Amino acid sequence: MMPRILAVANQKGGVGKTTTSVNLAASLAGAGKRVLLIDLDPQGNATMGSGIDKRNLERSVYQVLLGLTTMQSVRQKSESGGYDLVPANRELAGAEVEMVNLENRETRLKSALGTIAAEYDFILLDCPPALNLLTLNGLVAAEAVMIPMQCEYYALEGLSDLVETIRKVRKHLNPRLEIEGLLRTMYDPRNSLAQQVSAQLQQHFGDKLYATIIPRNVRLAEAPSYGAPAVRLDNACKGSQAYLALAAELLSRSAVALA
User: Fold this and answer.
1) For the chain, what are the domain ranges?
2) How far apart are CA 94 and CA 87, in angstroms?
3) Separation between Cα atoms, residue 113 and residue 116, nearest integer Å
4) 4-39 pLDDT, tens per residue?
5) Distance between CA atoms of residues 39 and 92, nearest Å
6) Fold of 4-258
7) How far is Cα 177 from Cα 71, in angstroms, rounded to an integer?
8) What is the reported pTM?
């Protein structure tokens, strides 16, 4: 049984990619699924948010992408999240430059994943806020893309760039890649613009839009400072409840796809 590999991607920063990756990983693990989270962002926020100190890493996803070590030797257990993690830190910024001259530079993550993929039900890839070689590796390794986005004026503009990139990747590098869904994050129902953008997304994307909406929530913002996903720290807060609902929605979609 092969896992569901999802890239969590949006080239726009500050839309809740890492919050989504960490809390969805913990929610799926809490539902009894075997989960691997791969941090592809040199900022290493998913690593820190999983309770692993990026400053003390001996090896990270950086060495994996350069072919210096294996996924097996780099992955760690996130005790606070209940899932496995392939961590990242600032070193990863150098991989961009170093990978340019390597063979199969777009497929290095996919190849490295091949050795451990069968051990998991879900593999989540937390992509950096850029359409760069790291994100490209994520899109080539994944079978679907989850796009977290805020319901604001510039969001739709950035979305068209990402959709175009996904189309190109599908055409040239990964024919099975699809949009798993669009996730509305940091949502404030009192904001009329947010309501308008949300309605536009519904119109354009229909059932590709998750029914679950992630609200603006203080606990979600605080959780990383404790090195734990919010769903583990306080599963009763509105943000945690939303991510638990998202995991349930994702599982029901996956079940329908398999049926």
Assistant:
1) 4-258
2) 15
3) 6
4) 999 999 999 999 999 999 999 999 999 999 999 999
5) 10
6) Rossmann fold (3.40.50)
7) 22
8) 0.96
